[in-house]
Design a protein that fits this description.
The longest helix has about 30 residues, at about 5-35. The chain has helices at about 5-35, 50-80; strands at about 40-45, 45. Strands 1-2 form a two-stranded antiparallel sheet. It is mainly α. It has one domain.
């Protein structure tokens, strides 16, 4: 099956946003948490490293999921492939 230019453009945008959000996830999960133990100041009464590991990363994960769902819904509508629409 040969993909049209419109399909390729849709897939390209999908891969680009997925790659960017995965890079953000990697940055928060591995890089930031690895260096968080060196952060010695307090944040809301707790050591910042504890806050980042216990709360901050979870907030970022929820924001990533929310943004991806919103972005893909808009992209699906733009390309006419959203749920409830026929191709």
């Amino acid at each position: 099956m040969q993909l049209t230019a419109r399909h390729q453009e849709y897939w390209s945008k999908n891969l680009r946003i997925t790659g960017l959000l995965l890079a953000l996830w990697f940055l928060v999960t591995f890089v930031l948490l690895y260096f968080a133990r060196d952060l010695t100041f307090t944040f809301f009464g707790w050591p910042f490293s504890f806050w980042v590991a216990g709360q901050g990363a979870l907030i970022v994960y929820c924001v990533i999921i929310w943004y991806y769902a919103r972005y893909m819904n808009n992209l699906d509508k733009e390309y006419g492939v959203s749920e409830g629409e026929s191709s």
